[in-house]
Amino acid sequence: MANDSVVWLEEVGKEDIAIVGGKGASLGEMIRAELPVPGGFAVTAQAFRRFIDENGISDELFRSLEVDVDDADILRKAEKNAKKIIMEASIPADIEESIRSKYRELCQRELSNQLKGKGFKEIKDLRILKEDEEEKFEVFVAVRSSATAEDLPDASFAGQQDTFLNIRGEQNIIDSVKKCWASLYGARAIYYRVKQGFDHRKVNLCAVVQMMVDAEKAGVMFSSHPATGEPITIIEGSWGLGETVVSGSVSPDYYSVDKQARKILERKIATKNIMHTKDMHTGKTIDIPVPENKKNAIVLDDDEIMKLVGFGEVVEDLYGTPQDVEWAIKNNEIYILQSRPITTIKKKKDVKEKVATSALLEGLGASPGMAYGESKLVSDVTELGKVKEGDILVAVMTTPDMVPAMKRAAAIVTDEGGMTCHAAIVSRELGCPAVVGTRRATELLTDNMKITVDGEKGLVFEGKKDTVAPITPPPQMQLSFAKSKPITATEVKVNVSIPEATQRAVETQADGVGLLRIEHMILGLPKHPKQYIKEGKADEYVDELVSRIQTVVDAFYPKPVWVRTLDAPTDEFRAMEGGEGEPIEPNPMLGYRGIRRDLLDTEHFDLEVKAFKELIKRGYSNMGIMIPLVQHPSELKRAKEFMRSKGLDIDKIDIGIMVEIPAAALIINDFIAEGLDFVSFGTNDLTQYTLAVDRNNEHVAHLYNEMHPAVLKLIEYVITECNKAGVKTSICGQAGSNPKVAKRLVELGITSISANIDAVETVREMVARTEMQLMLKAARERKV
Ligand code: PEP
Ligand code: MG
């Protein structure tokens, strides 16, 4: 290929990585192989070098990068300086003109195609268009970064530089090319190069300008299994542009196909809430809610799945190694947008690698199971795309918007948190091993380290622990409760927080749901409830609540599902879009949460009640309502009055409270006098408030003991008083998943126990055994 500054993609191939980077070379290669790749051109790495040299900014630029990258403030400053230097320099005139003329030609090519579609055979004569129409015919393109290192051309810098979507017009393209170049000096990219020992001066950036596909649906495909390398193609897809799938901001549909047998093995349909699309008026890429009728609709039909598999095979053959392919579909046409080798397949040599001995990190075993995989550090949602099927997600703490990536992860490791933090609750529901509260995971681990996570013992090892079986599909796909279920007089229920866990929860054959945490569902929405209200979309918010709660009450019908009213600490809600108004509290755990929040913010409580009413209207009489964090019977009274005043017939459903503040336990008879159907022990909070131990603080985790005699004494008192009054008692805190606690509670006469998904089976066995022991004991005593 001629060493030009701006070249057509079809002019380059895999031998040109040094000129157009891995991404550009791969696109060229695929176009040559006649794969359906959108056309475009590349502003080469040489053009970038000329830009640096001819502007004379080299010294200033590279000197500005000589900083201590471990200091976040300094690093951010360096990023700012370097980007300013790039943005203020001008692209050499001949290169700029080449970009403009290639873009004009790209527009002409597209126009030709469209005219052909309209039946025009000869399209060279564009005089058929009026001037203003010609003016308007400017295509939308994506401007993508494709970095390359001079001495190591195939080094991967994937995902570290920026991509700009839906760009139109010559000047905007020129600006975006410069922005791509500037993104070579983003903080993350600088940090990565320093830590990996790359010389900044030797890393160049090619900007690929490629026709945009206004995808109706899009996603990713692994041409072979990304963890095991087996001949199984994995496809993930969602509505709109593929960025939602790549970034992990939506749970996509999942399909797996046995390539050899040409058989679709699995189709998992997810609830797809948002889509990335082009705004018809501004041309900008925006996020919009997925239309109701498409949310739970299957994205790909069998024909599309098999066609994609076929393309995956061609790409894999082309490169001779399994590929991670981005695809899009528009007007029934499939497009291949990008392809790169899968780096996560565990090669045979991995088995012989360093055998783990002593633990690298210690924390709390928050979700049992062992997993081995590559670590991926995630600091915020923009990095979720790094986590591929079978990787180990490492974060300071997980947040609700990380759930899609948590679903792909083989295990989760966090710096912070206790047994009832977000990471712990969600990973247990997903059946994904987790170690939380390690304090130093994000400091000691780096991307792509091979580690073993022991979620039982709370340990993380470097390398492969010999007891770990070869990588198997993520545990969330393997749950099976094949054993026959013992019948127990004490009901054994299950806790649910995320709708995605419903199927696993149902498979436990639990006697119902003893706690459905709706705040996890709300935190998973694209914006804060107040934002919906502000935008006049309160009805949309209610619909979201209804559909999420309905997933669970429907799956368990007619078994009871106790839905808890909102209980979210302000710190978690503040992180949502539109959540800036959340009060900043010195101690959110003791603050504006639970029923006290709903009684002050009745605007929101009203929306919850609307959702409950709608569910009752739809026939879900199995729904009960549970009020969290009550400390005085007047709160129960006011909550009931409010629900009644809004037309919710609470006499027809079960109403109960959580006992999680010692005050509520001590005056339980006053609550009984106020009128309720059940109480449920929230031992996560009851323990922290009784013992003055912050449940999320790993520094005092050693003092957190849900079997502390004071906690047990409160529980015993409440069960005794409730039994006298005929009020049902239950437990939904983490302690209920501990068989020892379960035994004690059955002996005390509790009505039901609600455990985590992974604990239902063992708790049920313990309950059955304890009940039999009690019966035996009673029978023996009668004989004597
Ligand atoms: C509890 O406090 O035990 C409980 C189940 O509620 P949460 O963990 O949501 O505070
Ligand atoms: Mg609680």
Automatic annotation (TrEMBL):
Its cofactor is Mg(2+). Its EC number is 2.7.9.2. It catalyses: pyruvate + ATP + H2O = phosphoenolpyruvate + AMP + phosphate + 2 H(+). One of its GO terms (molecular function) is pyruvate, water dikinase activity. Residues 388-458 form the PEP-utilising enzyme mobile domain. Residues 482-771 form the PEP-utilising enzyme C-terminal domain. Residues 18-354 form the Pyruvate phosphate dikinase AMP/ATP-binding domain. Pathway: Carbohydrate biosynthesis; gluconeogenesis. It holds the Pfam family PEP-utilizers_C. One of its GO terms (biological process) is gluconeogenesis. PANTHER family: PHOSPHOENOLPYRUVATE SYNTHASE (PTHR43030). Belongs to the PEP-utilizing enzyme family. Catalyzes the phosphorylation of pyruvate to phosphoenolpyruvate. This is Phosphoenolpyruvate synthase. The gene is ppsA.
